[in-house]
Amino acid sequence: MPRETPAIGFPRTYIDRVPAQWREPAAGLAVGWLLLIACFARDWAAMFDQWWNISTYTHVLLVPPIIGWLVWQRWPQLREMTPIGWRIGLWLFAGAAILWVLGAFSGFNLIRQAAAVAMLGASALAILGPKVGRALMFPLAYMAFLVPFGDELVPALQMITAEMVILLTRLSAIPAVIDGVFIDTSAGLFEVAEACSGVKFLIAMIAFGVLAAHVCFLSWKRRIAFLVLAIAAPILANGVRAWATIYVAQFKGAEYATGFDHIVYGWFFFALVIALVIVLGWHFFDRPPGAPMIDGEAILASPLLDRWSRRSVGIRPALVIMGLAVLGATSWAMAAERLSARLPEQLFLPDVAGWQRADYIPQAPWEPRASGAEHRLLGRYVNAQGETVDVFYALYSGQSEGREAGGFGEGALMPQSEWSWLSPGPELGASKADRLLARGQIERVAFTWYRSGGTLTGSNARLKLANTLDRLLLRSRPTAVLILSSEKTGTLKPEASVARFQSAIGPVDVWMDRVGAIR
């Protein structure tokens, strides 16, 4: 009689615990997710780098285990369901793949990363079907918090915080003058910098508020009210914290107040805010303890889900179709990545009527950033009235990762420099205007234009739209950036100087094409 050989590998008892109807779909989903993460490894690596190294997104490291916990809470109902391949899920997957292509074409990393996450959710629907998808709707939707978003909110939050601070400061009988995000008091000049915008805590609170609203409430009105509280509390608290720093500085000095701010901000104040939000919402929690997260019987009996379930597809064909969609998306992106327009070997800043070239000697070092541009020009013009205008021009043969004219940290405001963003600047044509400040007293106004094909704009979004269209059509066109800027000196207004220079050069689009020898 042959002797029994012990099984090698994954214990059979664990497999036996999985219902038979779940084994192939679960294996297919696991394989599909591993392949998707491998295919879009660059996007996942970029996201993980932000989770691990940028404090604003450290909370995202908790999102994967939270999603696992949410799925586990639903497992008693899920094991009674039968997963099926779903054609509509394949259409959703195709949409996510197209979104990734658009993100790659526009150089918009946030869209690429959101699409990479969306492909995981869509593949789950394509393999597991509408009923299981309905049961997992919230965990799949919560995957959106894997995407590191929020930097776009910083300027608005800076302005909101500054307005709150000046209001509280004046109510405290402390004389103060506000200019953009800078507040001048007798104790010194205070800046509501990016780190003081409160975006870090706001993003974490939104993720917490959405989770708590789902887990702790059944009423949608209560869920919405709690989420509004979770969003408003950190914004208001951040304004109070910034005001407290200025208030303490009036009596203890700016250096003491800064140290006090770091301790309070990092350990006590916002921990108290979280506790306060929970305490205020606790009384209104209406989900009974131990109540199931979903109504499995209602999902199984749903006529709508029954009709959707008829649009089924085999799991293996679904995996093949998704693989072809990924292959098509990545191949298209690789072809567009190679696009490169022909550029002249050398560029020059031309003469301008009524203005003369002068030595470029700024009061504080200023040189806009244009990573990946093949040509960069920086010069100064002066007129008979003594007005000076600094001209920066950059020309790209194409737009891709690492060479994005409107990318984060590119343009007039140089990261990690003496310059800080002060406020939006005055309007001048189609440009984007920014007021900058260095050393607390040197003010500069900068107007930015982007030029690609027939598009002239100061909007980063419009530039990316034009670049995306070029890549969709596999059309190579150069992209140019023009920044006209002037420092405030004496009674001369920098915006007026730039306006006069812009009038002297004529139509901006024609002048940019002339400098870059584009047409």
Automatic annotation (TrEMBL):
InterPro entries: EpsH-like, Exo/Archaeosortase_dom, Exosortase, Exosortase-1, Methanolan_biosynth_EpsI
Major enzyme class: hydrolase
A Pfam family: DUF3485
Protein's name according to its UniProt entry: Exosortase A
Compartments (UniProt record): Cell membrane
EC number: 3.4.22.-
UniProt domain Methanolan biosynthesis EpsI: residue ranges: 320-507
Annotated source species: Novosphingobium aquae
Keywords assigned: Cell membrane, Hydrolase, Membrane, Protease, Transmembrane, Transmembrane helix
